[in-house]
Amino acid sequence: MANITDVARLAGVSHQTVSRVLNNENTVRPSTKARVEAAIAELHYRPSMVARALVTRKTRTIGLISTGNPLYGPSSTALGFNEAAREAGYQVTSASMSTSDRGAILEAIDVLVAQNVEALVLIASDVASIEAVQDLELQVPLITAESSGRMGGHSVSIDQFRGAELATSYLADLGHRRIVHLAGPSTSLDAAERERGWRSVLASRGLETREPVAGDWSPESGYAAAERLLGGGDFTAIFAANDQMALGVLHALSDRGLPVPGRISIVGFDDIPEAAHFIPPLTTVRQDFGELGRRIMESLLEVLRGQEFGEPVRTEPRLIERASAAPVGAGRAVTQPIAPPT
Amino acid sequence: MANITDVARLAGVSHQTVSRVLNNENTVRPSTKARVEAAIAELHYRPSMVARALVTRKTRTIGLISTGNPLYGPSSTALGFNEAAREAGYQVTSASMSTSDRGAILEAIDVLVAQNVEALVLIASDVASIEAVQDLELQVPLITAESSGRMGGHSVSIDQFRGAELATSYLADLGHRRIVHLAGPSTSLDAAERERGWRSVLASRGLETREPVAGDWSPESGYAAAERLLGGGDFTAIFAANDQMALGVLHALSDRGLPVPGRISIVGFDDIPEAAHFIPPLTTVRQDFGELGRRIMESLLEVLRGQEFGEPVRTEPRLIERASAAPVGAGRAVTQPIAPPT
DNA sequence: GACAGAAATGTGAGCGATCACATTTTCGAG
DNA sequence: CTCGAAAATGTGATCGCTCACATTTCTGTC
């Protein structure tokens, strides 16, 4: 590979002039600039980012850490972020891991920092991940996609609390008085926010609050949770903390012959691409993950340009009405606890 | 940040000795090694990967390009790859894009190569992406996750053809004689392989082959395709090229009151986490995407160690039996073309 | 305790760019 | 023309490390 000196020699100028052309400083005479560019083209020269990074101390690279399984939400956020970063001229070095192990996260951060990333982004909503980075002394800014506010200004998120309010109010407006919650795992901050939103609406409307049952986001856990919910007493609506669990619920109710929304209404969360084709199509809370990813990059750019972290950026989700929730009494309400199948 | 000279000074040795400790060459006396390590710890020293890369010309970085929407398959593959890479001491710089635009791909490769990645991985199954890289003259090895064999030895994949055979044979063994195919987009190499597998089984068993209807992987397209399929004539089974489209089919059939698998059996492809909770639970072909990602890294390591590309690595998918396919005639077969709803 | 050979450590150059500053060239005004 | 300021270009140091080779310090043997 040719280097800057080779180009300089061929163009008959000094290496510094080549450097000036490379960084298009406008103190180079058009005629020399043309000569240099010709030499660059002839040698197929590409400046070494590594050498440049060594002296400028800028790698134009951002470290992206993501934990947990490759779910639709985080994956979409990562994609949105990645595209926005590339557009802004940044590279993204990603460290993905299926665990949220503190040691693994710190190790990944260490490697990224050693590689001189200019900033870190953490896409993860579980307490373990957030806590792992919370009080870290870092040389570079770190932003999380996290909605509880625990990271102070260093976060960009979709308002999970608001989303849960939307879902729960919608069900309450439909006349449901007993709205149970299928919560996400207790390790998830987003899950906690969603539960909080649900509780808040129930409380403000004076509705009974039954202790929620928690799943782990998977359809399996949704299925299992539905059985526990059904064994636990009377209700007409379920607010599930994500669409996958809602699917499990749909399945469980179908297995028992309980019509949705005839007897039980369901609202999910996320609006995954499948949700519109669940049977029945799922009413859910849509989060624009791509947008979230782009916003993260925007915030990061501000910080990288020297601005202080401002208020946490928080965007609003929105309710998508489909067919899984209906006015209470549209079918017969479940009035008795239902025994599990024998 | 401290540099190698600072450490050397504090430890009372030369920078070269520090370098030796860093690269744990065993020509350093244990006592000096300990002194150096103490100095490293005291200064919180971390060697600059950038400086190291400049001289060794090795960045220990791999460029990962992925195109298209964040589907379960590619995302899982990327995760598996990322974890394997980290374990092997490599970083992953990823360029994800929702398009498969040739220009965008070449641009991304250019940026990655300029950054001195040691290898490139392309996770994409559409013709455009593969063609974009197919005849590229690159300084670094490039591996694709691609099953058609178009990339020669430079690919690692799950045998899509075999998976389709599995699905189709399963339906045929169940007694189905008219098995239609809901294909993936014509731009997808994987889709082409799946269709080829379906055709192959049909041909070898002397079964009628109806022209498949193509979707775009989305549940919406599955729904629409089901309607076209139903309008097109008689059949008792559908092999859908992926689970999401199978979901759309399930939805369409449910809307028409056609029982699955009573009248129509369905087999999908991928085994996404939701598939087990579709109504009915979907019989499908499972691909181990995480494994695929790890295999890609394995192959890459061999190449990076100087071995030649060998035969393309090809792993087998496997059929997961659930409830969406049943022996023909378990319900009444559809004998007349069904008019679309008015 | 002298010596050779091995083991341990040190020295200076160089990777490929940018930075700070020095030097040369150009251009317009008098 | 000459002069001086502005524009254009050049020079050498430097970023933080590894490489190649030089030098010093240990060993063990006689």
TrEMBL record, chains A, B:
InterPro entries xrefs: HTH_LacI, LacI/GalR-like_sensor, Lambda_DNA-bd_dom_sf, Peripla_BP_I
Taxon lineage: Bacteria, Bacillati, Actinomycetota, Actinomycetes, Micrococcales
Record-annotated HTH lacI-type domain positions: 2-56
GO molecular function: DNA-binding transcription factor activity; transcription cis-regulatory region binding
Organism of provenance: Lacisediminihabitans profunda
This protein's name: LacI family DNA-binding transcriptional regulator
Keywords: DNA-binding, Transcription, Transcription regulation
PANTHER family, sorted: HTH-TYPE TRANSCRIPTIONAL REGULATOR GALS, LACI-RELATED TRANSCRIPTIONAL REPRESSOR
Domain of life the protein comes from: Bacteria
A Pfam family annotated for this UniProt entry: LacI
SMART domains attached to this UniProt entry: HTH_LACI
